[in-house]
Design a protein that fits this description.
Blueprint (H helix, E strand, L loop, with lengths): L3 H12 L5 H8 L3 H13 L19 E8 L5 H12 L4 E6 L6 E7 L2 H14 L4 E6 L13
Antiparallel strand pairs: 1-3, 1-4, 2-3
Length: 150
Amino acid sequence: MLDSLDRKILRCLQDNADQSLAEIAAAVGLSQSPCWKRIKRLENEGYVRERVALLDRDLLDLGVTVFVSVRTNQHHETWLREFAEAISAIPEVVEFYRMSGDVDYLLKILCRDISDFDRIYKSLIKRTALRDVTSSFAMEQIKYTTRLPI
């Protein structure tokens, strides 16, 4: 179970996982040794999955975000496993969800431009049978965060 100090530590790590132990300890009001033990426990218990660098999509020429809605008439385990493997092999697909409602699957794709997306789309439809694929291009990103509301 998380207590308020654990949550403060997790918020610090979300803000900047590169902070020194001394900075985190000072921010949460602990000495370094107990803070380090808590961080290690949080990592061992899986609260901290990994520490990563967030890259600038625009500087990497990946400024186009496309949401792809997929509908299928295939609803069996073998097809889903093969579909998931095919989608996971496309590096431009950065998020992939099975949905409720009218859409069966939702993909978030980051790419350079429309012709780059067309290449990805052709790769997608070549890999598996789909009933309906609808693509929506994001016009503006209004909010983006990797912070969880803890």
